[in-house]
Amino acid sequence: xxxxxDAIADEFETLADLLEFQGANxxxxxxxxxxxxxxxxxxxxxxxxLADPTFDPTSIEGIGEAVGEKMRALVLxxxxxxxxxxxxxxxxxxxxxxxxxxxxxxxxxxxxxELKIDSLxxxxxxxxxxxxxxxxGFGAKTETTILExxxxxxxxxxxxxxxxxxxxxxxxxxxxxxxAHEKLEFAGSLRRGRExxxxxxxxxxxxxxxxVMDRLAEFDDVRxxxxxxxxxxxxxxxxxxxxxxxxxxxxxxxxxxxxxTGSMAHNVKVRAHAKQLGLKINEWGVFRxxxxxxxxxxxxxxxxxxxxxxxxxxxxxxxEARLEFQDSRPAELPPLIELSDLRGDLHMHTTATDGTxxxxxxxxxxYDLGLRYIVISDHSQRVAMARGLDEERLLAQxxxxxxxxxxxxxxxxxxxxxxxxxxxxxxxxxxxxDEVLAQADWVTASIHYGQNQPREQITERMLNAVRHPSVDVxxxxxxxxxxxxxxxxxxxxxxxxxxVEHGKALELNANPHxxxxxxxxxxxxxxxxxxxxxxxxxxxxxxxxxxRCGVIQARRGGLTANDVLNTRDxxxxxxxxxxxx
Length: 581
Ligand code: DGT
Ligand code: CA
Ligand code: CA
Ligand code: ZN
Description:
With 581 residues, the protein is an alpha/beta fold. Helices cover 43% and strands 15% of the residues.
């Protein structure tokens, strides 16, 4: 049960939060936050290195004496004494306050001191009574933001982003390689590709189930074994996340995988259909029921289970009892899009604004992933925090893009296209002139400011952008941040209708924090014939790999390669824009 780098980093984040809450020196707070970032990004497991007394943690850039000592205490003794002391001093509810989006440690401290707020319930009350706006540095807007954030703080207590849950699943898979097993698969919402995951459901076939359970108990970050029986075990990690393990016989692997993949609603349909055929399905298999007797007929593989009831195998992403059935029968479904169908990436940033890589480095990264073209789309001037491009800098960047494009298309047949992520300003106009936008190969429009405007206003801004002759696609159309920020108030059906009329595309932003549009919304796009773009919005070379997450989301919406614009090759993509009505 040693500490993963993530769990170590979480402790330092909490330490920084609590110190900041107490009003500690901001230099110290920053040092702990930096340390957390370094630790999270470290590729080797630090806990095993720290067990070696000759290893000097301060040899790592960004780790000083104080952090190094605390890391050792944490890994060797199980706690950072100073952090435990802080936790003892503060009421429990204070830690909950720190999880409310829009409420940092400083603001939380003010609320605690001035209004004696030490729980989410008291915070909600105070916002509703409009008490916050009386304080310096708080306004009506803060109250709204906090009220919106409250539901997230309450609901996000256990759920993780799918990408974070997947990282834990990968580590666990490696860890369990240390014990004999024949089959191992993660079921549940992770397998269905949901954007957030409540817990992991692990199905294993092994010669010695008890040994697998012993091994699970030793997994990094396990805080407690919640339950352990003959075939089932549940553990909880330090971050509160739960893992459910089932050890099943080989002949039940497929039926257990099917059962625990869910969704519940999908399985209700499956069971009802089986019953009509005189069959019974549960996690142990498919059984023929004759009077009192039940005979096992299938269960070894998932395909066997579906075959036994005369149904096709459904991709797990579709098992939500939504698209996969029509009139309670399996729907006729064309093959879903796959990652390898993507040819280009239409949304990414470079060092010109808030990215960490140059145009050429992004191109190289995309080329190495097997893509054939990219659109460089840095921020426009309104996004001053990210050094957004004004017209002069943008035109200069485009000259550079053109030059690189010439070289790269000649040498590698790889295209680098001129784009921009142009802000839709608060008044509904575009952040750059029509004249400049008209020269782009691809114009992405998006909202970064005035996100709290009323529904009519936001919708009108989006409609303006869709109607703008040079705009091609609206990026992250609802503005939500998973587990952090609710979507803007926007009449999405109206925006979609306008996209149909004007032949514009909508983005499925693949960033795992956004996945914006969601599965139901992309399904609606496909239904209306609105081309969807799956783009990374990468700010670094490694950020390009999130395209995978976007493809999973698109599959959940039942999308085929045809529904997605950037599955076309560069010529086809450019032709689509040219032929637009
Ligand atoms: P999550 O963990 O909240 O993200 O979502 P799931 O879908 O992974 O839900 P979970 O972990 O509670 O259960 C995994 C699957 O197991 C679920 O999709 C269907 C199945 N399942 C769980 N509990 C029950 C139950 O009480 N009855 C039936 N029929 N199926 C269940
Ligand atoms: Ca689950
Ligand atoms: Ca579960
Ligand atoms: Zn962007």
